[in-house]
What we know:
Layout: H1 8-11, E1 17-18, H2 39-46, H3 54-61, H4 66-91, H5 100-120, H6 131-151, E2 169-170, H7 178-198, H8 201-212, H9 217-223, H10 228-248, H11 253-259
Antiparallel strand pairs: 1-2
Amino acid sequence: MPDxxxxxxxxxxxxxxxxxxxxxxxxxxxxxxxxQTDLSFYRxxxxxxxxxxxxxxxxxxxxxxxxxxxxxxxxxxxRLQRSIYFYLSQDRSDxxxxxxxxxxxxxxxxAQDATLRVMDNLDxxxxxxxxxxxxxxxxxxxxxxxxxxxxxxxxxxxxLTADGESSPRLVTSKSPTPEKVAERDDVLEKIERxxxxxxxxxxxxxxxxxxxxxxxxxxxxxxxxxxxNALYKLIHxxxxxxxxxxxxxxxxxxxxxxxxxx
Length: 262
């Protein structure tokens, strides 16, 4: 009999499941020590930075003088690139194995976007921290978001329910009795049937993507051509309909949780 246990996670929000590791397009972090470095890395990590106060940063980046603003923008981009580079090389265990030159190029590309993001939010800076600290946080958040999107860049809505290595498995500490196995299989069949019959195709795709595949909400919303609020409502409605269908068949949440306890 095929393993249908993954579908239980959709019916029981918060049920303990284990996802096998997904493979990224990048590979984890490395230690700089002992590494051969290229010229671009040397320039990135040793280039002197102009020290500015918070007021100096705001004034320079907002300057009507194109020359002064250009210098400030270049300095900001270098600072962000350096911060992003060290984040990628030291804090991302999924990037190990990438050459220094590749990480440097990634940091450069992300720094360009981060500089634009900082400029777009310049009027929101309140001076509660150093400007460079505030800007670096924006840059790192952007890097995290970009890497997360890269992980799910090629996923297909039509293939979300296909069996694969990313399917979750129920975590159990001991083998259930044959009677318990039969009862669980029966419940899982009913859950799977309820998913197919009670939900619209769009609700089904959204619920499986988030509950089973772990697709980030913002990535899924973009792929489905909607926004986060609308997606939240779609999933909420799907869970509500699924719960009502299962309860109409005498399967309460408490019953199912007890059935699949260790």
